[in-house]
Specification:
34% strand; 25% helix; 5 helices; four-stranded antiparallel β-sheet; alpha+beta; 14 strands; globular; Aminopeptidase; eight-stranded mixed β-sheet
């Protein structure tokens, strides 16, 4: 691993709990292997592109990394309904990260809807440079999961294939298709692939108990949280 810069950003409004302030530690890397990133993931780090980050808040420990135990996962009634709704209609294509106008437009529509319906901060119209920095320029090969309905792009996700785990980086979808539960469908698809390949864990990023946008994660059970002592503990069984 080759580090370019490492610093702790000044406190700013929390992206998960707007009434709080967060403080993030960043590490920008020139090179990083999947094994090296897995070690960072197990220490509570996440990443977008070549920027690794983790919370360093003085008074709050709400952000906890969550992973699903693949071998024992069993979908609940709602997840089974989501599977029936999408499995024969949605086509998944997995490839290398790309940058297209349709992806940028979908990304902007998704964020505009989230700001409108869930109170997310207003998101500026994305540009090719910032999108590429977040999702296309990666320190090691990353998968782009594209979801199509009748040849129309309706969802895009990014997934790291790491030793012993698949890590979901980010997912966005067409707000007009939100009735399909595409966020759930994306996680189910990742879990299916992990099960087929004998991969033990799927990492879903941070879980924040009082953040409405995060509650869906604890429904994929059994799952574990990363404790403050660096040990994974059973959460929802």
């Amino acid at each position: 691993m080759e580090t370019v810069a490492r610093y702790i950003a000044p406190p700013s409004q929390c992206g998960y709990l707007p009434e709080q302030f967060w403080r993030l530690e960043y590490e920008h890397v020139a090179t990083l292997s999947p094994q090296e990133y897995l070690q960072r993931l197990l220490q509570g780090w996440r990443r977008f592109g070549r920027a690794l980050f983790r919370p360093r808040c003085r008074t709050c420990t709400a952000c906890q990394s969550l992973r699903v135990v693949v071998e024992r996962f069993r979908p609940d009634r709602s997840q089974r309904r989501c599977r029936r709704l999408n499995e024969s209609e949605i086509v998944l294509r997995i490839g290398a990260p790309s940058l297209t106008r349709s992806q940028l437009a979908l990304y902007d529509r998704y964020h505009a809807h989230q700001a409108d319906s869930k109170g997310w901060p207003e998101h500026p119209v994305s540009d090719a440079y910032s999108y590429a920095n977040s999702f296309v320029d990666n320190p090691f090969p990353t998968q782009e999961w594209r979801y199509y309905f009748r040849d129309r792009l309706i969802g895009v996700g990014y997934v790291d294939d790491l030793p012993g785990g698949l890590s979901a980086i980010y997912f966005f979808y067409d707000p007009e298709e939100r009735w399909r539960g595409l966020g759930t469908w994306n996680v189910l698809s990742i879990l299916d692939r992990a099960a087929a390949q004998g991969i033990p864990y799927v990492y879903l990023g941070y879980y924040v108990a009082n953040c409405p946008s995060m509650t869906y994660k604890n429904r994929f059970r059994p799952n574990q949280l990363l404790g403050l002592d660096g040990q994974w503990i059973d959460f929802r069984k």
